[in-house]
Amino acid sequence: MLDFRMETFLAVCQCMNFTRASEKLNITQPAVSQHIRFLEKHYDTKLFRYEGKKLRLTRAGEILRSASLTMMHDEISMLSEMQKPDGNEEVRFGATRTVGDVVMGEMLGRYLARYPDADIHMYVENTQELLKRLDEGKIDFALVEGFFKKNEYDFQKYSEEEYIAVCAPEYRFKRMPEQIEDLFGERLLLREEGSGTREVLERYLDSQNLSLGDFERRMEAGSLHTIKELAKAGCGVTFLYEVAVREELKNGTLIRIPLKDFIVSHEFAFIWRRGSIYVDKYKEIFRRFSS
């Protein structure tokens, strides 16, 4: 069972404020301070520092936070495993929306054909929400297309996917596009903040000293299906994984926009909390999912 002082530490990490942490835990602020001082004395190091008026984790604090989240996650998984009926395998995992819509149907179909008694719970969210669920122990692992901190999560690569610009075949450009700047006058159809699909584009633009703000018009939608339907209707241009629009490219309802300066790919990865005691179990499930 996770020590109550570690629970206090994680609450402070989440709130980055002693007062708000005390309110979250329903204990006094002096009690919060006492718990943190105990941990700092136990580990013989400072866990927090102030930068101006803002509370920050020290490097030692970051290490303890990551380890504590893994311990909390494993404890929740262990409790769930202890309480389930014998022989009833429970699989709690998450998938990002592109992965969930495009990959998981076939993958789960194969899995259930081989393991028909498996108790499966799949949650489809954007990358940031799934990382949060992992940290809180609400899911055991996730298959994501977005970025994650590789010092906090162990992972295995599932696939490498091409990332492309697409539009309707009859779309009329203000200027014929040869490079990404030529699209700035078009409406950009964009996934919501926190989406891995969006973050790939944001990071590419940043690497070119550009940003989403360079597009004159933008529209956000949290649904991959909606983004594709808007693009097919000629409402704008969008950037998606090629695997997510493979059928549309094949039947001609969407076409690829050939950009000379835009050659981007990113991996889909199977991830779990770094240092988990269940690493062998997760690798075995990943092998089953992939076979």
Short overview:
The protein is an alpha/beta fold and 291 residues long.
Task: Give keywords.
291 residues, 43% helix, 23% strand, globular
Number of helices: 11
Shape: globular
Tell how many strands the DSSP assignment holds: 11
Series of H and E elements? HHHEEHEHHEHEEEHEHEHEEH
CA radius of gyration is 22 Å
The proportion of residues in beta strands is 15-25%
The biggest sheet, with number of strands, parallel, antiparallel or mixed sense and barrel status, is: 9 strands, mixed
Low-confidence stretches: none
Average pLDDT for all residues: 91
Tell me roughly what share of residues is in helical segments. 40-55%
Query: How far apart, in Å, are the first and last alpha carbons?
Result: 36 Å
Structural class by sheet pairing and helices = alpha/beta
